[in-house]
Amino acid sequence: MSKTPLKKEFWGKRNYSLLKTVLSLLLLSATLISLMVGRFEVPPFDIISAILSGFIPSPDLSPTVRSVIVDVRLPRVIAVILVGAALSVAGAAFQGLFRNPLVSPDILGVSAGAGFGAALALLLTENIFITQSFAFLFGLISVGLAYMISRVYRVSSTLTLVLAGIVVAALFQALTSLVKYVADPLNKLPAIVFWLMGSFNHISNSDLMVAGPLLVGGIVILYLVRWRINVLSMGEEDARALGVDVRQQKAIIIMSATIISAAAVSICGIVGWIGLVIPHVGRILVGPDHKLLIPIAALVGASYLLIVDTVARTVTVTEIPIGIITALVGAPVFAYLLRKTQTGWKQ
Amino acid sequence: MKQYALLILCAILGILFLGIPACAEEGKTRLITDMAGNEIEIPVTIERVAFFGGPIGQVPYILGVQDTIVATSIGSKNSQLLNIMDQNLKNVPSPRQTNGIINIEELIKSDPQFVLAGDVDGAIVKKQTTIPVVYFFESSDGTAEQTKAEVAFVGLIYGKEDRAQKYADYLDSTLSLIKSRIGDIPLSEQKVLFNGYDANHLITYGGDSYMQERIENAGLKNAAQEVSTSGVRPGIHSGLDEISMEQVLKWDPDILVIDTGSPDDVYNDPKWASIKAVQERQVYRLPNGVFVWNRPTAESAVLHPLWMAKIAYPERFADISMKDEVKKFYQEIFSYELTDEQIDKILAGEFASAISAGKGQTNQTNMGNK
To answer: According to the model, what pLDDT value does residue B7 have?
Structure first.
């Protein structure tokens, strides 16, 4: 069972801190550019004084400009960074845990469940907060279901868990279709369709207050247990032999990744491909060691999603649904990466 | 064997002899040209018709021929107000859900003489059944002229040209009334209106949608005029698209019309706080009668521009009460007497076409269809 780590990656361990610095600078500059561009032109200096206006009063700043930056652009940029980083970290953790490069954070049905929860809430109410809560709850419920189904068979194989996840996802997708079928085509159906398409267009500061801590919490937990993912990715028997409580660690990782995905879906709908593709990019850069991979995946994912979202909101007057761009870019990139994924997956 | 054959022969002859006169009576047809330019035979006596299409669903009520509806769209069937006005509606099946989604067997079961449909639905019915299709338009952009033409066409089919003409006159006189009040406002002084639909108030109609004309008819400017929103998107009505929040802040509209939630929610949302419409308390919830007013229906073609003009320029319409106008329109066009409570509900946008009215019925039908 010998892995061949750190074989073909571009950077390797030696230049790891340099790589981290470069990626951090990339994220920082992407953030600055993203804050500067938008349909509403704001001079760079006003952006700074708008961001600081909470601390330093700036009387000559127009309230509209302040609103554009503080209430619209800033929460959106922060949300995109958090979601991009969180989904990538969750994807990396799942791919390690399930020892499968085709796994994404919603493999256990969290997106399908959350999508159903949101659709159901949109059918019954007009309240955004209830919609988000339903999305989050049903995301957790669906993964809980998948976990329970896999436990019933008492085979602690991760394969059973993945299969249970697929079953649960199929169930909730069918339920979502049913809700769409029953929904009033005049106003409810368009609302559901728009919601499921996924967009950061609606993020407000209050969304961040709720989802932000969940996303950050998920990232931090996965960061803290990142070396255990390494152990688990060697296989359960080996991990047990090394004295790791497999069931407990598995539960922690699944729970964190699920909270991340559910929180992400609840504020921005279903944004695909990030959690699947970014970990591969990270693995090409630093290899399969999760101790190195997790931080890199977070940085790459945040920068990538931020760039994509900035394009989505600036190039046309109407918003381009972000799911379209992530899939359009993600699919070919993934196809290209398949050639390279030898790295770290040769057993 | 022989006697059986004889029996069958007798039966067939019997049916033929009895059937022919009956058929001749019923089968009398006349040739009309539908709105797509097809010549088509339709029965002289119209008893059973399927109405496929959201906006067309209210035309039989304008003509007073709602008794002939045997199949309709879910949008009409779910209309709370239409169910109050027509007690029989709950017994009418709704094989058409949205554009292009039709339960064909349910349609055949309802046994219409012909289907009135738009291009997408019509093509499906034509391909899968032998039921004649009468196209009420080939492509609709929902302008006032087209709405009039639609009502006139259905009126012609039914021989109810007088009722159709009455509607056309009513529409014309309302539009000219609005024009007489706002026609002198120079373009530069016209107020800017933004239609912000959906829970986030960011779905809107652009300058190439029918809404453009309607907003202009009300003496207003469409904030989203520069946006192209035409084209059909899956699951969404044509003519709608999503705008970014920044774009709305840039347009800074004088008036915001929402179709979800309440104006108070918008007033309390910091994202919207700097917009003129919020600062001047000019956020309004779209009214909703037998159908939502932001679709190209006969009802909204008359009342929607008047409503917009009145909220934008109240001083010019001080003598006009929207409540009276709604009452009068329903009286004269739908021959229905609204209660005060119903009028308030219409203007507050509370007549949801939501699942509330006839919910059980709808669910049942849907489940049955599955």
So the answer is: 62
